[in-house]
Amino acid sequence: MSDTPVKVIQKATWVGSIANVALAIVKITVGKLTGSQALVADGVHSFSDLVTDTAILIGSRYWTAPADKGHPYGHGRFETLTNIFIGVLLALVGIGIGWDSVKQIGNEATSPPGMLAFWAAMASILVKEILYRWTVVQAKKINSRSLHANAWHHRSDALSSLPVAIAVIANFIVPDLHYLDQVAALLVTAMILKAAFEILWPAILELTEAESDIDVEGKIQQYAEADTNIKEVHAIRSRRTGSTILLDFHLLVDPEMSVDEAHTISENFKSHILQEIDEVVDVIIHIEPYTCAERVVNPCCEEKGCEEKGCEEKGIEEKDGED
After folding, report:
1. Does 245 lie in the same domain as 179?
2. Where is the Cation efflux protein transmembrane domain (predicted)?
3. Model pTM greater than 0.70?
């Protein structure tokens, strides 16, 4: 029996948390011993992951809950809020690291970091890249955007260790490059801020009711064309709530069809959509007759100013021709 979404999220998050604690302690300790400010900054970045892990552990209990009377559309926005929290925290950590690095650049030069800092950075890159790949697999299993965001948090940690390793090697080879370690810390800052933006922006779009980020309209039109009972679909609207998508559109059928037949067609089409598009969890379909007054994709009159009567006659002719 497969694990529930909340169990998958908690398992992946706990594994990441344990790794983050171990890596943070190692990097900060080695950074202090070897005099690598960039490695210390990288360790602080790893510690910040613990806060986001906690947010996911708490938030997942809410956003995985089913819809209820108080939240008829589900609790997906709790996941959105969690993503915003992760993004804001990442941005603050990045700004803090960058500010400290800028202040250190003007200070008196210190001796280059020792090679132990290089091996600590390389260990971090390896562990965090493995965590990233494993967490992405878990996120895809349950289609969790927050878990995917946390996976990218792991990837940003791996990438942020890369300039640290390069700076240590460069400083070891050319000791006169006194401030290369601080420059590496600024590169870490840039990577952290980029990761923060990539997490924050989709969440902001979601809160502002932007259209979902997948080509839902194209897929719906494709499915409709394959169904001979459906004459047209239009006014397709989609919005994201957490990792799920809510969808509504107008569906046109033969005006001579009974209400019961039209309802059956719409229910079958809804089931097909839910089966084909995993992220879609609810579909509202407005059934309309395939008449000139309702047609949008294939209007009866192509020329402006045509009379309604003429449209109706043309619609009848077209219908008779189809029959």
Report:
1. no
2. 14-207
3. no
